[in-house]
Amino acid sequence: MGGVMTKADSPKKAWIPETKLEARMVEAMQRREAEGTTIKSFNSIILKFPKIDESLRKCKAIFEQFDEDSNGSIDQEELRKCFYKLEISFTEEEINDLFVACDINEDMGMKFNEFIVLLCLVFLLKDDPAALHAKSKMGMPHLEATFQTLVDAFVFLDKDKNGYVSKNEMVQAINETGERSSGGIALKRFEEMDWDNNGMVNFKEFLFAFTRWVGIDDIEDEEDEREI
């Protein structure tokens, strides 16, 4: 997501967010990046997969609570009620922007993995000075601790702290593991994240890839099989 702007007097690229939400996401991430990260290697991120997977799966009960018609997805009206009950005070426009951004299937309903990504984006954005009204606690300390780990993981990958992860940054992060095949692994992981193939990965794209890495998509696959 984002467009490229090049300067004639500089070989560097400045990545321009395409939407207001993406701009806020990048700004919020850059503020977090200024604080640093406790993560020191990509391997340490991998070691956290089981714990992250367990924590995110517990979010299924929250998802089902707000999926009032039990159709396996949360629509915009259900999402508004969700924000109200969780005391997340975003504006109507902000809620709609988040919904559109996370409804990657564009079917007007958020599946479980899309719902997790949305909640993590809320966690990131609630510290945005432009959204001070949204600083109320989400009431999910364990889940918020997991979201903090995901933010830390992105901060570790974003070496130049511009709010995006490039292919070179991914290669650099995985090369630090010292494994022979690390270059190929890095490119594969980057392709899994960069689903719009524009060469840069924002936090939302990273989150969607991460839910697949830890196996969250498997929950939906299992449920689809049971329905069949």
UniProtKB/TrEMBL annotation:
UniProt keyword Nucleotide-binding present: no
Example GO molecular function: calcium ion binding
EF-hand domain mapped to chain residues: 54-89, 145-180, 181-216
Protein name, per record: Putative calcium-binding protein CML21
Keyword terms: Calcium
Origin superkingdom: Eukaryota
Tagged with keyword Cell membrane: no
InterPro entries: CML21-like (IPR052591), EF-hand-dom_pair (IPR011992), EF_Hand_1_Ca_BS (IPR018247), EF_hand_dom (IPR002048)
One Pfam short name: EF-hand_7
PROSITE patterns, sorted: EF_HAND_1 (PS00018), EF_HAND_2 (PS50222)
